[in-house]
Write a structure and sequence with these properties.
The protein is α+β, with helices and mostly antiparallel strands and about 200 residues long. The strands form 2 sheets. Strands 7-6-5-4-8 form a 5-stranded antiparallel sheet. It has a 3-stranded mixed sheet with strand order 1-2-3, with helices on one face. Helix content is about 30%, strand content about 30%. A hairpin with a 2-residue loop joins strand 4 and strand 5. It folds into 2 domains: about 120 residues, GMP Synthetase, Chain A, domain 3, CATH 3.30.300.70; about 60 residues, SH3 type barrels (Roll).
C-alpha cells in the first residue's frame, strides 16, 4: 500500500545486465544524512527477503530522477540473469508496498552489479584483489582523495592497493565514499569464464 498518487514502475531490464562496456550508471544522489538514513532503512527492509532467496544486497541507491536502485548478486557467486532480476523485483516490490518507506513516487530498479562493479563491502576488496580499481574518499588520505591501482586486499579494515607508480597506499574502509572496479581485459575474461562455467552446469 502507498500514499495516494504514488506510482511505481518495475524496470529490471532498464540497464543491460551483462554489458561488456561500462555499466550504465544511474545518476546517484549525493548522500546527506537524511537520504543515507532512508537508504539504510530500505536495505534493512529488503535484506531479509533478498537473503532468504539466496542473494546478497550489494548497494541501495536513489537517483535524482526518483529511481530506487537495488543492486543484488547471488550469494553462491554464480552469474545473475534476467529471470533472477524479475523474480526479485516482484518480491521486493511487494515488501516495499507493505513497509512503504518512500512517500514520493519512485521507480524500482533491480539490477546486477555489472562487470565494472561498485565495491561497497569489506569482502569485495578481498574477492577482487588483483584487479584494477578506483577509490574516492570523504577526506584526504595520505594527502589525496582519489586513488587508482591494483587491489591488494583488506587488512584490519584498511584497503591496500598498488598505485600506478608502484607505491602502495592504505585507505581505511570507513573513509571510502565511492569505489569501483576498472574495466580491463583480465576482468572481462574472468567474467566470460564465469558465465561459460555457469552455462555448463545447466
Amino acid at each position: 500500500m502507498g500514499f495516494a498518487g504514488r506510482t511505481k514502475q518495475k524496470e529490471w531490464a532498464k540497464n543491460p545486465l551483462f554489458s561488456f562496456g561500462t555499466t550504465p550508471a544511474t545518476q546517484i544522489v549525493e548522500k546527506p544524512n537524511r537520504v543515507t538514513d532512508l537508504l539504510r532503512r530500505i536495505e534493512d527492509i529488503v535484506a531479509p527477503t533478498v537473503v532468504g532467496m539466496g542473494f546478497e544486497v550489494v548497494r541501495v541507491a536513489m537517483s535524482r530522477g526518483g529511481t530506487l536502485q537495488i543492486m543484488i548478486e547471488p550469494a553462491d557467486g554464480r552469474p545473475m540473469d534476467v529471470e533472477d532480476c524479475a523474480t526479485l523485483s516482484r518480491a521486493l516490490s511487494a515488501v516495499l508496498d507493505v513497509e512503504d518507506p518512500i512517500s514520493e513516487a519512485y521507480t524500482l530498479e533491480v539490477s546486477s552489479p555489472g562487470i565494472d562493479r561498485p565495491l561497497t563491502r569489506p569482502k569485495d576488496y578481498v574477492r577482487w584483489a588483483g584487479h584494477l580499481a578506483r577509490i574516492e574518499t570523504t577526506l584526504a588520505v595520505e594527502g589525496r582523495r582519489r586513488f587508482k591501482g591494483t587491489l591488494l586486499g583488506l587488512e584490519d579494515s584498511v584497503v591496500r592497493l598498488r598505485l600506478d607508480d608502484g607505491k602502495e597506499a592504505a585507505v581505511p574502509f570507513d573513509a571510502i565514499s565511492k569505489a569501483k572496479l576498472e574495466l580491463t581485459d583480465r576482468l572481462i575474461e574472468e567474467h566470460r569464464l564465469a558465465h561459460e562455467g555457469a552455462g555448463q552446469t545447466h
